[in-house]
Amino acid sequence: MSAPEWGFDSIRDVVTAVLVLVAALMCFAAGVGLLRFPDVLSRLHAATKPQILGVIAIVADVAVSNPSLVTITLAVAIIFFQSLTAPVSAHMVGRAAYRTGHFRRDILVADEFRGHD
Hints:
117 residues, mainly alpha, 74% helix, elongated
C-alpha cells in the first residue's frame, strides 16, 4: 500500500477547510462577544475585529477554491472595502453611543473625549 499523493486539488481542499474553520471560529467569537460584553463600546470591538477576519477568511476561501482573475479581483475588492468600512462604521456607532451616554463609564480605562463633546 503506497502513501497517498498530495496533488494540487488535495492541498486546495485542505486550505479551503482551514479557511472555513477559521472563518467560522471568528464569526462565533464575534457572536459570543456580542452576547457577553456589557456595553456598546465593548461589543463594537467584538463585532468588528473577529468579524472582518472571518469575512476575509471566507473571501480568501472563495478565491482559493475558484482561482480565476475575476474571482481574485472581486475578492481583493471585497476585502479592501470591508477593511475600510467596518472600522469607520464602528467608530461612528461608538461615537454616537458615547454622545448619547449608552455606555458604562465605570469600565472605561481612559476617557480622552470627556469635555470635548
